[in-house]
């Protein structure tokens, strides 16, 4: 029968893996800087400083590129809520806390570079962007649980999903600077997803039933960040229609690779609870 451990026990048990994976993450991560990718020559003052305010004809991006980049800003800019979610569960231990700071700083540079690009190139209405950003941050993160293994599973999935959205937006090939920016961000996202997935993989070796339950709950309850579009309804539907992110891609390029990495359907160490969780994922086998 599988052993259940408290979050406190798991924090201690998994900390060596966090230390090792943090070292690997830093070695693999690209040392890029937002200011290097900001097209400052494209910028000009707005009306408050004697320039010209934004108007729709100033945008050079397609609607789907604008939408994808805006969702990217909202995800990365909601740092206080995400940081609270992680800090609440991971506080008190050195390696865990170092990772929380590292991950937060990487998300911050993603937000900085995207907002710089969108505002400098006048790709979006900066007033509307700021209003939706403030609304999104006020609502906070809707990560469904504060238990340690749930958090690891949730962010392994969310970062993989973000990388997929960014890669698909790059494939549109409309703006080379935006493509470069999204490539840097997608690289970060993939490494971050790998970090969370690796620590959860370590948890499978210690508490397989608890880990399987966390994965099943987070996959079955997963939903990408959403904004309401005044003329088109849900951003999720719009991204799906444009081929940026839909249910089939989520299944085949987000869920299935993670499940394969955790060897969910090949494990022989699951007890009754773990087997029940695996049954809930059978449609992804």
Question: How would you portray this structure in words?
Answer:
This protein has 285 residues and is mainly alpha-helical. It has helices at residues 7-28, 63-77, 79-90, 94-120, 126-139, 148-170, 176-206, 208-220, 235-241, 247-261, 272-280; strands at 228-229, 233-234. A hairpin with a 3-residue loop joins strand 1 (228-229) and strand 2. It is globular, with a radius of gyration of 20 Å.
Compute the separation of the termini in Å: 24 Å
**Largest sheet strand order:** 1-2
Structural class assignment: mainly alpha
Main pleated sheet? 2 strands, antiparallel
- The averaged pLDDT comes out at 89
Strand fraction: under 5%
DSSP helical segment count: 11
Write down the Rg. 20 Å
Order of helices and strands: HHHHHHHHEEHHH
| Count of β-strands | 2
Low-confidence stretches: none
Anisotropy-based shape: globular
Helical content band: 55-70%
Brief description of this entry?
The protein has helices at 7-28, 63-77, 79-90, 94-120, 126-139, 148-170, 176-206, 208-220, 235-241, 247-261, 272-280, and strands spanning 228-229, 233-234.
Sum up the structure in keywords.
single chain; 1% strand; mainly alpha; 285 residues; 11 helices; two-stranded antiparallel sheet
Topology:
Layout (H helix, E strand, L loop, with lengths): L6 H22 L34 H15 L1 H12 L3 H27 L5 H14 L8 H23 L5 H31 L1 H13 L7 E2 L3 E2 H7 L5 H15 L10 H9 L5
Antiparallel strand pairs: 1-2
């Amino acid at each position: 029968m599988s052993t259940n451990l408290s979050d406190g026990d798991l924090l201690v048990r998994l900390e060596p893996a966090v230390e090792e994976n943090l070292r690997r993450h830093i070695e693999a991560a690209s040392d890029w800087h937002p200011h290097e990718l900001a097209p400052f020559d494209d910028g000009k003052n707005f009306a408050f400083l004697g320039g010209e305010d934004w108007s729709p004809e100033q945008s050079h991006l397609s609607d789907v590129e604008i939408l994808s980049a805006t969702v990217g800003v909202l995800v990365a800019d909601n740092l206080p809520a995400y940081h609270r979610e992680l800090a609440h569960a991971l506080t008190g231990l050195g390696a865990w806390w170092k990772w929380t700071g590292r991950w937060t700083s990487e998300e911050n540079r993603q937000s900085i570079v995207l907002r710089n690009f969108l505002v400098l190139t006048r790709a979006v209405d900066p007033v509307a962007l700021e209003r939706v950003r403030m609304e999104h941050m006020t609502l906070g993160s809707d990560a469904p649980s504060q238990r340690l293994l749930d958090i690891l599973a949730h962010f392994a999935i969310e970062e993989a999903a973000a990388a997929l959205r960014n890669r698909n937006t790059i494939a549109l090939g409309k703006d080379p600077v935006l493509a470069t920016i999204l490539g840097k961000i997608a690289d970060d996202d993939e490494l971050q997803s790998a970090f969370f997935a690796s620590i959860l993989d370590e948890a499978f070796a210690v508490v397989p039933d608890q880990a399987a339950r966390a994965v099943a709950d987070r996959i079955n309850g997963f939903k990408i960040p959403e904004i309401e579009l005044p003329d088109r309804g849900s951003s999720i539907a719009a991204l799906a229609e444009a081929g940026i992110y839909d249910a089939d891609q989520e299944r085949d390029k987000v869920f299935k690779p993670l499940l394969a990495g955790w060897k969910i359907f090949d494990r022989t160490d699951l007890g009754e609870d773990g087997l029940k969780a695996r049954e809930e994922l059978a449609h992804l086998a």
